[in-house]
Amino acid sequence: VKDIERDDVEFVCRSLGCRPIASIDHFTAENLAQAELVEEISAGGSKLLKVTGSVTKPETVTILVRAVNEMMLAEAERSIHDALCVVRCLVKKRFLIAGGGAPEIELALRLTEYSRTL
User: Fold this and answer.
1) For FRET with 77, which of 1, 69, 83, 88 sits at 20 to 30 Å CA-CA?
2) Is the pTM of this model over 0.85?
């Protein structure tokens, strides 16, 4: 990979499971990562580095989000973050309570049903 922004080096290294190499002396197998395909693609006038089939960190996924303006992009980012938090919670604890007032409605129905037996 060449011509990478300094800010992106840490992200790429964490995503691929490699370490940044500043000199040829550090070019060893334990500092490198493996992938099936690495290609530079164009998307919306900018070039992106697409890494497919990472061997060292196969669980890494990137979501590319584009929007008309910054406000829409920020809203999309918040929505994706919320969705990922829901998935994380479901992985940690395998139960789900429906939203939109569903627990309250269920409680009201059960209380109404119980009140008829009094």
Assistant:
1) 1
2) no
